Amino acid sequence: MSVQRLLNSSRWDADALRDDVRAYVAERLEPDGVLIIDDTGFIKMGTTSAGVGRQYTGTSGKIDNCQIGVFAAYATRSGRALVDRELYLPKAWTSDRDRCRAAKIPDERGFAT
Q: For the purposes of burial, counting CB atoms within 10 Å of the CB of 63, is it exposed (0-12), middle (13-18) or buried (19 or more)?
């Protein structure tokens, strides 16, 4: 089974997995680490992927059609791990509830910067 097939066809809870990783990190990495917040762009050609739109991304170094993911990592001298993630939704998405519903974005998700 390919990893892509596993991710697409298996039932799993991404938030529960995130919580497990956070608990693991809290138990095993030193408490004097730093929290690092950073975003990354995923270049896209279409218009239906959740959050896609023309926006600046460092991935291409220009305004491009992309999605933006925001990630939190915890880093210490002995290790580092991603501890959270969120898809950035531009106003064009959060103000269009039908588009959000079609992409399975919950109604309670709003615009945030």
A: exposed
